[in-house]
Amino acid sequence: MTTRDSIENLLIEGQHIIQQAEEQLGQSNRNHFVMNEDYRNAHLELEKLAQSINRVMNSANAQQRDQLHRFQLVVNEKLNDMILDQIDVTKFE
């Protein structure tokens, strides 16, 4: 069983990673979707976070799994936003 502290630490660390990703998404949008190294690092950190959530979820109890699942939805949403921003929207015009 996963300890409450380890899940709490994962959620706190995850919130920080999500905040960084949101900052990079905003900066990318202001710079006409130019992706820099910070953007790629934020994307990579989100992917690592998603993998960590999956690992922890395997040993969590039902209540913890529910909490982690909801958090995973938020992480996946940010990952999707970052992936969609990388698509060159001008080629579809």
From TrEMBL:
**Pfam families in the record, alphabetically?**
DUF2524
- Family annotation (InterPro entries): Uncharacterised_YtzC
The protein depicted here goes by the name: DUF2524 family protein
